[in-house]
TrEMBL record:
<dbReference type="InterPro" id="IPR002423">
    <property type="entry name" value="Cpn60/GroEL/TCP-1"/>
</dbReference>
<dbReference type="GO" id="GO:0005524">
    <property type="term" value="F:ATP binding"/>
</dbReference>
<dbReference type="Pfam" id="PF00118">
    <property type="entry name" value="Cpn60_TCP1"/>
</dbReference>
<protein>
    <submittedName>
        <fullName>Uncharacterized protein</fullName>
    </submittedName>
</protein>
<dbReference type="InterPro" id="IPR042619">
    <property type="entry name" value="BBS10"/>
</dbReference>
<dbReference type="GO" id="GO:0051131">
    <property type="term" value="P:chaperone-mediated protein complex assembly"/>
</dbReference>
<dbReference type="InterPro" id="IPR027410">
    <property type="entry name" value="TCP-1-like_intermed_sf"/>
</dbReference>
<dbReference type="InterPro" id="IPR027413">
    <property type="entry name" value="GROEL-like_equatorial_sf"/>
</dbReference>
<dbReference type="InterPro" id="IPR027409">
    <property type="entry name" value="GroEL-like_apical_dom_sf"/>
</dbReference>
């Protein structure tokens, strides 16, 4: 459903032929021909992070005033934190993770929000460990953190979905090696960084990437290019 929402969004931006595209790097190297969704399908099927990112793209269609960049900052900050936590990275139980470690991760993920401390005691009181039994309770606390940190940036529905994604991301770490998650993000960045999409009968679309993965719903006019007088930019930044 998330992938279909993403395809629908792209079709609305680029027209019904948006899926039939030629994706190249700026140097002309061809990445994908004919079926532009192949890349998205590949990333979605091979990467848990890509699935989360694709879902976030869908969420962003409901968001006014940005938020996707902030979400990726949360993901990246969390992975950066975990990469420096040897004990957590090397000894992750298959079905649980110590609450304090998850708290530290989430605190880093929301970039040190002072409001996080208000929820710290609540989450610590739930249990000493994250497990299936207290999933909903932890989810509620995370939802409160997300709502507080991103107040005014998201519709209620989008905030609910983002909270769910964040909770699942924490849970996903329990069953995945951190280095693999970081590798998948690197693959995403490599594949999406610096590409041009040309849809038959449509305007040339050049990505304005900010270490980019998430495509903004707003399409802006851009300067004249050597390939096409009318150029559209998909803005990936929320600032």
């Amino acid at each position: 459903m998330a992938l279909q929402s993403f395809i629908t969004m792209m079709s609305q931006l680029l027209g019904p032929e948006a899926g039939k595209v030629l994706i190249t790097k700026q140097n002309g190297e061809v990445i994908i021909t004919n079926d532009g969704w192949t890349l998205i399908n590949f990333l979605t099927s091979t990467s848990p992070v890509a699935r989360i990112v694709t879902q976030a793209c869908s969420v962003h269609t409901k968001v006014y005033g940005g938020g996707c960049k902030s979400f990726m900052l949360m993901v990246n900050a969390g992975l950066e934190y975990l990469s420096g936590n040897t004990e957590l990275a090397c000894h992750i139980p298959s079905n649980r993770i110590k609450v304090i470690s998850a708290l530290n991760w989430f605190q880093a993920a929301v970039l040190g929000s002072d409001r996080f401390e208000q929820e710290l005691a609540n989450l610590t009181a739930i249990s000493t460990e994250l497990n299936n039994e207290n999933y909903k309770a932890v989810e509620t606390v995370i939802s409160n953190v997300v709502r507080t940190c991103f107040a005014g940036k998201f519709s209620n529905n989008a905030t609910v979905v983002l909270s769910d994604l964040t909770t699942k991301l924490i849970w996903k770490i329990c069953g995945n090696v951190v280095s693999n998650l970081r590798k998948m993000i690197a693959i995403l960045l490599q594949n999406f960084d610096d590409f041009v999409v040309e849809a038959p009968g449509q305007l040339l679309v050049q990505s304005a990437l900010v270490k980019g993965i998430l495509i903004d719903r707003e399409v802006k006019n851009f300067i004249h290019s050597s390939n096409c007088q009318n150029v559209l930019v998909l803005n990936l930044d929320d600032s």
